[in-house]
Design goal:
alpha+beta; 1 helix
Length: 233
């Protein structure tokens, strides 16, 4: 009789273990499905476009061996400004934030052309500066600007081989509004401002759809074609 009881107890224990295993397996599958849905939702719907809302102007000065960037905002800025890839180290000159706790309407960063993840292709130097309103997270409404300093000389210009780096002057500079999200595609860039000198300035209120605006004789704004009007700041 005791043998029969042992068999019954063993069957009950086995059934209980089977129920626990099946329940745990279902919970794991549900968590995996929820994670996949969450990731899909983020990739499909949570896309952050570049915005120049709240920005008065961005100025780029291409030095002989440096980039100088000045940001001016409509209201005191309490976020951070950094070159892409420099957020986690959070060290100057590649990462800047206002010194005052209440923020500032002007923020400046200056870095050498061999610093802050600056890319070089011959005599063309490029970098991306991210303007993040929240000190910790990229959110909709943040900005990013692609910066270019072009030291390539026109073919018609005879440049002495002995010219030192400190003597060279950029023959072109460019600022392009782009997405602050590093995962966003770069083929659909936004408004661009270019200059045939070492200095260029991006001013949002000058932007007009379907137009190229000439500033004097050396600067122009290139805008993508769009059937929608754009509100001024």
């Amino acid at each position: 009789m005791s043998g029969l009881q042992n068999c019954i107890l063993l069957l009950m224990a086995s059934s209980l273990l089977l129920v626990v295993y099946v329940s745990a397996n279902k919970q794991q599958q549900q968590r995996q499905q929820n994670q996949e849905i969450w990731e899909q939702d983020l990739s499909d719907t949570f896309k952050i476009e570049g915005s120049d809302q709240g920005i008065q102007k961005v100025n780029l000065k291409c030095g002989a061996d440096s980039m100088n960037v000045v940001l001016e905002t409509e209201k005191p800025f309490t976020g951070v400004m950094y070159t892409r890839g420099s957020f986690y180290k959070q060290t100057p000159p590649c990462f800047m934030k206002p010194t005052a706790s209440q923020g500032a309407r002007s923020l400046e960063m200056n870095f050498q052309l061999d610093q802050c993840q600056t890319l070089r292709e011959g005599d063309l130097y490029t970098n991306i500066v991210v303007i993040q309103n929240d000190p910790e997270l990229i959110t909709p409404g943040d900005s990013a600007f692609s910066l270019e300093c072009d030291f390539r000389q026109p073919r018609s210009l005879d440049v002495e081989a002995s010219m030192q780096t400190r003597d060279r002057v950029a023959t072109g500079s460019k600022i392009t509004l782009t997405s602050p999200d590093p995962a966003a595609p770069t083929e659909h860039l936004h408004n661009s401002v270019l200059s045939n000198s070492d200095t260029v300035e991006y001013i949002p209120k000058f932007s007009r759809p379907n137009r190229t605006i000439h500033l004097g004789s050396v600067e122009e704004v290139e805008l993508p074609s769009s059937g929608h009007s754009r509100d001024e700041l």
